[in-house]
Each structure stands twice: as structure tokens, then as C-alpha cells.
Structures
1.
Amino acid sequence: MSSSQLAKGLTLAMPFTPSLPANFLNGYAILNSSWLTWPVNVYDVKLLGSEAQGQEDRGRIKNVIWDLRSEHKAQCRGLGFVVDVNAHQVVIPGNWNLPVPITTDKYSVRLEASLIARATDKGARGIVEGILREAIKLHFKKKTCPELGDLWQDFNSFCQYPVPSGDEEHIMCRRFEFGVKLLSGGLWVVRLSISTTLLDSWTFGDYYARGEVRLLADRLEAKRRNRVTRKNRPSAVRVLQQYKRGSSEVRALDFEDYDLLMDHVTLSPERQIALGVQCLRCSEFKKGVIGVPIDELRLILDTQITQEDHSDTIIGPAEREELTRQLRSFVDGAGAYGQTLQLSEEPVDAEPFETTLIPPPDVRVRGADGKEVVIKTPEIASEHSLKARARDRSEHIRRHGFLVRRPIDPLLSWP
């Protein structure tokens, strides 16, 4: 069931214990939202030499401000945030004062406004969402939760530490994501989502030691197949470095030696073993290329690779409830740049919201040999037809994996 008044990204869930609401959202209310305020400065950033500065440039304008902050640390003291509110403007703490206007051969920056961002002001919604999102992300990076254990970051998600088990082909890591949404009636909610990330149980070193580089190459190709960036370039292949020598540290990287590995595929298994490859090149976000020992590298898998094993990643209701409560307890009390988040004990009750039934649209799925298959929308949105459609889609995913073109952020619109 969907509602034009419910924020994108929140979903209805069925209760796991009698104490929960009959229908609830996968989020917890921020109880002290009326007290959340931050003084901020809004800067306009123009990228020179770019005729159409668009949404894909939001990361670039944030990097401009972070670089300027590094150059002017005396004027930008303490922890802070850089929030992109649109393709041209970013927000930083009010006590960060850049010496604007600034113009270089690459960009120009000027102060647009200085104001107080309040959670009670709907006009500041984008700013408040961004500040809280950055605050919770910082909390995950700096704090630890004994119940969840060590976590590693993959973009805006955090995953549990990988623990190989016996002869299993895959290593499962629970994946935690969060978001901040403003619902109707001015209700601020922290959305908590739980899924599963699969890792290859073999390291890159295992493939080379066994002369099985072709198998690794097939998996790399499966990850890149039909996936491009916004600039129509092949997407990066994500890998995990799991340190072996006296450290529990792990980090997600982009694999940079794709072409070199494809060259090694042409060699015989004996030649692959004889190569004695020690390191392959990878890169970390906003950092340079480094050599990583191949016995520390694992491939982060996609459903195109796991296919029918995808069903193993499904989280049962009891485990999902336990993990969600642990996440809620971890985020509750998190610092937010001078403020403290207070979350409700129970997830948000969905019953008070006005709802409208919207039949699902046609859905594209991955068929045999990677071909695209379209499952049509039910003519009548009955329980039977919706269940049949769900089973059909689930069967395609179980057998062939998800159909992936490139990441999107869909927008639901209505008259």
C-alpha cells in the first residue's frame, strides 16, 4: 500500500511481536525534532567550463568546498558538514567562514545566505535531511556497537565484518542503511533498512594460486555487464580488502587492474600460477591508486553472480526485528553537530496516514542469458494477482539475478 503523503523510501512492514502496531513503517520518529536547529552558511558554487551543471556534479561542488575548508582551516574549525542541497548550492556550519568570493580557473564560490536551519521549517527540509544524514553517517564511522560488531563502509552503507565459514562459496555480511524523511504532519523519521551483502569466499590470490583466473574474470564481467555510469562509462568493480596481518580492518575499494587481469586470462593455468602476482591496483574514494596484496582482496558479489543462491540472503522476521532494534538503540542518542537525536521506542505507526492503493507498474526483470523480460501490471489489483506477480518476479531474480543498468533515484509523482 502506498501513499502520496508518505515519504519515498519508507515501506510498510508486518509486526513481529504483539506489542508493535498492526502496520508500521521501517523508521523511528525523532522525538526532539522541534528543538533541532543549526546556524548555517549557504554557498553558491559554479563550475567553470561546464555548460550544463547538473545533478551529476553535486559531488564535485562538495569536493570544492571540502578542498577550500582544508586550505582555510583557521576559519573552519571543528567537526562539520558539507551538504549539497541542489546542483549549485552547498551548506556548511555557520562558524565555517570561507574568504569569499573566490574565483579560480575551475570554479567560483560566493556566499548566498546565512540562516538558521530549523527542523520545524519545511523550507529547510533539504538542509536538515542532509545534516542529519551526515551526522548519522559520522556516528557509524566513529562509534562502535557491541551487538553489531565491527562494521565496514561501502558508500553510504555499513556492513558487518566478513567471517569465512568452512567450504561455503559465499560470505554473508548484513548490510545497514539509513535515511532521514519528513512525513506529513511535520513528523521527522529515521529510516533503518537491513539487507545482505555477499562476498566471494575465494580471494584473488586463491584464483591465481589455482590457475582459475578465468572464473574470476567471468565474475568481474558479470558485475560490469550492462552497467554504466551517468557518463556512459563502465562502472567500477567494488572489492573488499581484508587485512591479514594482525588487523581486523577491512575497506571497500574500486578495482583498477581490470584490463591487466583480462590479459592474464589468456594464459594457461600453469602460466597464471607461475606469474607470481603479489599485488593488484585498487583505489579508495577520493584517494590515489594503491597496490593491494591479492590474498587480501575479495570480490563483492552481485545477484548476477549468485543467481539461485540469492534466496540465502533473505532475512527472517525474527532476525530482522532483532537487528532493527539494535540499530535503533545504536542511533538513539547520536550527536548531530551540537544536537542529540532522540528516537521513539517503537517504529512509526502507519495507520494514521491517509493511504491510496496504487497498482504496481510493469517491471523489467533479468531473463535467461541476461535478456530483459517485462512482467505486466495486473489488470485487477487483487491479493491473488499481486501475489502471483511477486512470485513471478521472485522466480526471475532467484534464477537470473537482478536486472541492473545503472543506479537511479526514482521519483513518484501524482496529479
Note: The CA atoms of residues 148 and 355 lie 35 Å apart.
2.
Amino acid sequence: MMGGESRAAARGRPLDAGPRRRGGADLIDPPALASQAQYEGQMPTLDCRRIRIRHGVGDWQFVSPNQDASGVVEVAQGEDVEVRLPPAGSGGYLGYEVVGHERRPLPLGSMLDGLAGTFTWRPAAGFLGSFGLEFSSGAETVVPLRLVVGPPMRTVIETPANGTEVASSFVLSGWSVDLASVSGTGVDIVLAWAFPVDRDASGALPAGSGPDPGATPIWIGAASPGPPRSELGRIYGPAFVDAAYRFNISTLAPGTYDLAVYPRRTSTGQIEGARIVRVTVR
């Protein structure tokens, strides 16, 4: 299946040891290193080193190859990005944004010099997320590129809604992706803890109260994969169809909790894109 508020920095404790502080980040171990032979057959066929980029007036860099042979470029909102494509024939390049299986015009405000093989863009306010681009030079030459605008980690808690009451058995679910992933969803595991919320001496829940500093966070576990999400595939690309996660929770005593979801980014082994929802268990 696969920060928000925290990062996994230290090593050496099991995932179910429970966090020592609210983020709990110092307890998360990175995934074990896989052998090269395991992934040799998944090497991209396109030499993405032929595609170069630079941000603003910075140095030129080669583009990271994705498993599907496209290049992946991260850019901030309002930042200039320039892409130099491989040499093309005399006809130069035509460019498109690909949404689903449909080719559309390039994003608003971008510019392609097809003969020079140069694409430039400064994403304006409102442009956030993943943009799949294709640059075509003749029937056989297509250069795919994925531009990720803004933070690449996206985590959503869909159920339960924030501030709701839930039964003693309920489902915590949503989805999490790394839009800059070079293989799959970019999230290798999603973890969760429940933080009891602080109450006053009378047992009331004051407005704006936070987690009880004297309470021990409760380990929920590692998520199970959720059902395939075709709409995520249409929005972000087919690699993200399996981004859903699901926790079946039935171990919390009645009370109010902050449920914290911690996705671990495959490329870094770090917790990034954490999200919290507050619920009251009846």
C-alpha cells in the first residue's frame, strides 16, 4: 500500500513501542533496504538524464526517472521552472497536459518553445498538485514529465469527520500519496496513535484543549490497504490508485481523542504529511 508535524529521526525501537511525545516521530524506522536484483526488471526504459531542469536562475540538473519512464520535477508555487527536452527533429515539440487518457492544452501561464525544446512555467496561486505533461516530436517520440507543484505529500482523513461522535467500533480511513514518487504511491506504511484529550478537574472538555500531557498515547496499529480508488488515478495518475488506507478500531475506552495518522514516505523513510482528527468515542 502503500509531515505534517513530525519526522522520523532516531532508530532502534519497534513500530508498536508507542510515541514518547505527540509527534512520536523518533520511533519510526525506515524500511529495510531491498536488493538490487529484486528491482532490476523495473528500471525505466527512458534515459531521463537527457532531460534537464533548473529552478529560477539556479544550476541545471538532470530529471529523476520515474518507474513508468517519465521524469518527476518538484516546484514551489510562484517559482520559475525551466525544462530542456532532448533534441528533436526539425518539427520540434508539441506539448500537452494529460488528464486521464485525454490530451489537453498545457497549463495556463506556461510556455513551450517547440523548436528549441524548452518549456517554462511559473505556477500561479491555485495551481497545486500533480500535472502530467507530454511533449511529442513525431509519432514515435513522446517525452512524459510530471510536475509536482507545492508539497508532494498529500494525506486525507475521510472518516470519521472532525469533531464527531463514534461508536465503540469504528473505521478510520482515507488516503495518502507522495506525488513525487518514482514508484507506486510513494507511501510504504501508514501508522496511527490515539491521544487522549485533556479535561479539567470536573471532567469537562475546555474549548481549545489539547492532548493530555500525562496520558500515554494509545497505539492503534499499521493500516490495512483500502479499496482501489479510481478517482485518485484519474486525478494524479494510475500509480496512485492503491493509496487508500483503513484502520478498524475497537479498543478505545469512551472519551475524546485526537487520532493521528502518520504516513511514512518511501523515498526518505521519514514521517511526512501527518494528519489529526478529533473524535469522541461513546
Note: Confidence is low (pLDDT under 50) at residues 3-49.
3.
Amino acid sequence: MKAALVPSPAHQVFSKPLLKWAGGKTQLLGEIIPKIPQNYSRYIEPFFGGGAVFFSLRPEKAIIADNNPELINLYQTVADDVEGVIAQLRHYENTEESFYAVRAQDWTKLSCTEASARTIFLNKTCYNGLYRVNKSGGFNVPFGGYKNPKITDEVSLFAASTLLRKSTIICSDYKRVLQENAEPGDFIFLDPPYLPISEGHSHYKNTVLGLMLISHHCRSFDRISLFSRFFFSLPQSFIPFWYTVSMSIAVADIPRQAKLLARLITVVTLSRR
């Protein structure tokens, strides 16, 4: 009989992103974490992606969300059945033939554990760890050809599972997530995607125009009830211009403050054109 996978104490301590994610904030954690308030009720991240900030903070109460159903399936399944995901990952081989066979699969026709393992496998073995789909929703990043990628990282998976089980995981648009869940005392981390390079593709261009999206997100806050704190992360290309290009502010009157912040961001955008 196959022995059950039993997490060691180390699995309860360390956590890191399960995926490499374009626009991920792992390299900026040293700038972001010190600006996060020490006390807050719940952590909310509606543009979750790879979740670098979440996995670094390890909040006791969290709501994480994304509008990518494949991504949300991964996190929900790791929370619910991490052993099943690990078992599936052990079947994969890092070969070009295997990669393209797995890439050709329709993840929506797989079980939750199979689909989650497929997502991890493709991310670990594709070129540069990109996540990109075509107009039909098919993953289209080529094989990476890496010598020895760590496809099955049990320590990270068990640690992530422990953390994710304590979190509410939602597949939804950011506006709905905030309108239906945000309450006074919550800390909201907003890291919106940048503008698409071309229609029908899900990868993003790190550009000044990406700031216009954040201005839009700010303006939408006047339809949401009171928040205590929120945090904006701006494109990395702005770091030389404004050292951290990120801010953490206390909010007493969200409609008034959000409009002020939206104007500030618009000014920053225009000043760099």
C-alpha cells in the first residue's frame, strides 16, 4: 500500500509562490512589506496572480481572488487536496514530447487535481515560466528545455496548502470581490495587470499606459464602503523615477481620498509621457 504524504514541521513554516508569474512582486518584497500596516483585520488581494506578497505575509485571515479560473482551480485544489496534486505531478517527465502532449490537453476536461498539476508542470517547464493563452484560451508558451526544473516541490506545496486552507479563494472580477467582501479594517493589496500587448493575449506590456488602469480602479472605489488601508503597486519601470512607486495610506473618507489618489496617479502618468 502506498504511504501517505505527511508534511514535516518545515512545511508549516516556509511558503513561497507556487508559480513563476509575469509581473510578480517577489523581487520587490523588500520594498513592499515594510509599507504594509502591522495590524489589520483581513488581507484581500483581488488580482492574485502568483501571490508573492500573500505567501510572504502568511496572513491568518485572507480573501484572495483572480478572474482566471485555471489559476483559482490550482489554489483551491492545493488547499483541498495537496497530496492528490503531488501524486499527479510525479507522473510528469521533463521532455519536449511530454510537454506538448500535456499542453494540448483541455484543462476544463480534467479533474481538479489533474488540471492543477498540469498548470504547475507547464509553468515549471515552459519558456521563462510564462502564462500566456491564445484567443481560444489555449496555453501557447513553448517548451523551455531546462535541464532540471523542480516540477514537484513538496515543501512549497504543503506550506501553500496550509496557508490556502485558512483563506477564502474566489474566482471573480476585482470590483465584485471588493464590493461584496471588503469591510472596515481590511488591508487590500491591489496589483492590477498592465495593458495587453495585443488583442486576445493575456500577457502584458510594462508601460506608462498601465497606470491608467490603476486610475480607473481608484475611481471605482467611490462605489465601495469604507476601507481602513489599501496599497497600490505600480509598474517596475517607474522605480528609478519614484523610488518605491508604491504607497500605503490610511483612509477616513474613501470617496474623497480615492479621487485624490486617482488624480495623483494620472499626473504621474502624464508627467512621464
Note: The longest helix spans residues 254-271.
4.
Amino acid sequence: MTNRVSWDLFLMILAVHLQAVCLNLSHISGPLHELDTVISSLQNVVLSLPRSNHLRARCVQRLAKTRLKRYTLSGQQDDLEQSILGFTEAIYLPPSRDNTYFYGRNIFLIFYLLTLAILLRAMKSRQPEDVKFCVICLRYLH
């Protein structure tokens, strides 16, 4: 019984933390229709860029963050799934060869937000696989 109570408390604390993180994403604000406009614009940019373009990683990461923010406001499962896919893609995109500017990704932030997104999915689905993936992501952050 104590394990169950401590697990629920742990999930609740992380969920509150995730909401605080998502609500403080500096480049994203406004109601759902504004987020939809940002998502649409970012999707168009991502689709127009080849995988080798250094801006693609930044746009994919921003799109994933925006979808995560939209999920916290709307609760639509598709936004959460697309966010998880976006963070995963951002991890696997090649780093920039141009060292004069930092166009790349913040890999620690990506893993952190991916972990929180998967945790949200785990809280809803109650699937042990999701918790396992959270632990794997946290190991990469360690």
C-alpha cells in the first residue's frame, strides 16, 4: 500500500512540475488558436527543410515544445503523441557543422521534456512500458 501511495505522490509532483515548465515556455503563449497558427507555421518550415539543414533541429524541437504546451491546455492525446515523436526526432537529427552560431539543440532539455511528456502519457495510460522509457531517459540525463 505504501508503494502505491508514494508512486501516486511522485506522479502528482512530476505532473505539477511539468505544467509549470510548459506554462513557462517563453516562445509560446496565447490561446489554442494562436498555438494552432504557430504549429502550422512550424510544420510548414519543417517540411520544407531537408534533414541535413541545421535549422531543422531547432524547428523540430520548437514544434515539439509547442505541441506539449497545446496538450497541457487542450488535453488532446494526439498533441502529446506528436510532441513525443518530435522530441525523439530532435534527438536523432544530425548536429550542425556550422560552429559560428549555435543553431543546434539543447539535448538535455530535449531529454528532460521527452521524459516529462512520456510521464504524462504514463499517468494517463498506466502502461509500465511508459514508466520504463521515463527511467531510460532519466539515465541519459544522469
Note: The CA atoms of residues 40 and 120 lie 24 Å apart.
